[in-house]
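Suppose a classmate hands you a notebook page containing two proteins, each written out with its sequence and a corresponding row of structure tokens. How would you begin to make sense of it? This section walks through that situation. The first entry is reproduced here exactly as it would appear on such a page.
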Amino acid sequence: MIYRLGTYAQKRVSGVTTLIPDDNATWTNVASGMNTGLGFIEWTNSAVMQWSNTGSFASLPANKDGYLELQLNYSPSYSSSGYSIFGLSLTSGGTAYDTVEYSFYYEGPYNRISILVGGARQNATYNFVMGSTLKIERILGVIKFYMNGSLFYTHPTNTNAELFYNSRINRYMGSYNLKIVY
């Protein structure tokens, strides 16, 4: 399904649906101080440094295999000293970082990334290079996390629930080339 101005539409090419915000999916639940556009969301308000800086754009339907893919890049106008959480959640709203059920957590001052499930760190932290491709995939209910095509975590509990893209941005980060494919 594709969200377009509050209605549902279907876009399929060779049996694959690709959702890209501001192309064929609409940004929702965007906090003030956030800037959104074609495939990206970024924080722009230096007066608001909190996890409630949020945005959402589409979902992976229940009982469907698919993935969220994104590239994390420096926001063009700001520094890289912020913190960001990007992933799939069980609801499209919320403002707490731990409501993004399956997520990547980027710590800008340390240039590292880790995996959070329900807000809890699931593995060691990894060095991160800006522009790397991050992917959260669901196949037959199994949630897997990848960086640059390499698997580095498989969650032990399966889910077939509808999962929404969600973000929490606390200072100066942008996310580009976002898409959900199923």
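The notebook's second entry, a different protein, reads as follows.
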Amino acid sequence: MDIDFKIVLIAFIGVWGISRSVVAQQSEMLLYEIAGNRYERQNFDKSGKLASRQVLNVGSITEDENQFRLPVEIIAYNREGTVQDTTRTIYKCNPEEQNIFVNIFPYSDYGKGGEIKVKPEDTSSLYPVNPGVGWQMKPIHFEMHINKGLVGFLGGKSKIKMYNRRVVANDTLTAGEYEINSSVNLGVYVMGIKVKGLDYRVSEVVDRERGLIYQKFRAGDGSYFVIQLQ
């Protein structure tokens, strides 16, 4: 079906079901915006103590040279709440790939302050509308190419893979919300050489009206960070 995206940021969420009538409707998508949203990222050490936090203020989407541009202001604080840094990063993608923007906020530290081209491998059915517990979803693959500065000159990029994505039971959620557990592998490359690799276990809470409202990324050493829609 044709959808007029205009200049709002959206995310596709495929319609799932087991009946023939529901399967016939799988091309329908639930749309939601993140332009203008405010997110907070809190970083904790392996003992569970707050180490730092960032506030991410999402700007308005613009279209330039057949590219969608998403500005994000990142304000960094130390554990005492003192501002340490303020940067502005521009994320770009092709219009037909704009749903991938919803997944970029956990990786905002990479290429901070520059321009980043986001290139997804697949943009279909990132999150189902109303899945049942145990539902297994497709992996998500995308790249983030840094376009400015020395790292950009050297071909810096990050490759992200979210896999083993499964809906799990959570009795604390409200109507219209569900939780996904998955694994994430993040690779950072400079001049084609992998210079950093990170693995996380991830929990995400999705709201059918507002999209991703909570993410928790736990590293192997026990440290973790949480991102929440404010």
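A careful reader of the second entry would note: Confidence is low (pLDDT under 50) at residues 1-31.
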